[in-house]
């Protein structure tokens, strides 16, 4: 299994696999396509999530999981939406123990 930390930098000083760097762009493109009803949204979201989960890094997984869940939801696939969101939340929960939210942003996490 590929992990971002194991082989992030290749011999030429660049990533041997470009997937982690493409996750944010692929996630955003999936969301835009999904919101516009354009074809390819689910494929983009699925690929971004696949690449992101291989890294195991929450900065990659969070946006990709969100894009996949939103794309599935917009497509009416509610059971798959819950599964995709749950998988992303599980990783966020593990990472959350190591992340401290700055006081300036804490109000955003309080339910209104």
Give a verbal description of the structure.
With 112 residues, the chain is mostly helical. It has one domain. The chain is 65% helix and 0% strand. The protein has 5 helices and no strands. Helix 1 packs antiparallel against helix 2 (41-55). The longest helix has 19 residues, at 78-96. It is globular, with a radius of gyration of 15 Å. The protein starts with 18 loop residues before the first helix and ends in a 6-residue tail after the last helix.
Question: Can you give keywords for this protein?
Answer:
mainly alpha; 112 residues; globular; disordered C terminus
Whole-number count of domains:
1
Estimated helix fraction? 55-70%
Rounded to the nearest angstrom, the radius of gyration is 15 Å
Shape: globular
The description of the largest β-sheet is: none
Number of helices: 5
Structural class: mainly alpha
Question: Secondary-structure element order, as H and E?
Answer: HHHHH
Q: Unreliable segments (pLDDT under 50, ≥5 consecutive)?
A: 1-10, 107-112
Which whole number gives the mean pLDDT? Answer: 77
Distance between the termini: 41 Å
Q: List how many beta strands DSSP finds.
A: 0
Q: Give the strand content.
A: under 5%
């Amino acid at each position: 299994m590929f992990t971002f930390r194991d082989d992030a930098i290749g011999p030429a000083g660049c990533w041997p696999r470009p997937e982690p760097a493409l996750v944010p762009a692929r996630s955003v493109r999936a969301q835009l396509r999904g919101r516009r009803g354009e074809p390819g949204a689910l494929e983009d979201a699925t690929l971004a999530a696949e690449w992101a989960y291989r890294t195991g890094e929450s900065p990659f997984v969070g946006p990709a999981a969100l894009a996949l869940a939103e794309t599935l939801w917009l497509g009416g696939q509610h059971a798959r939406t819950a599964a995709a969101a749950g998988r992303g939340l599980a990783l966020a929960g593990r990472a959350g123990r190591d992340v401290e939210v700055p006081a300036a942003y804490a109000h955003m996490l309080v339910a209104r």
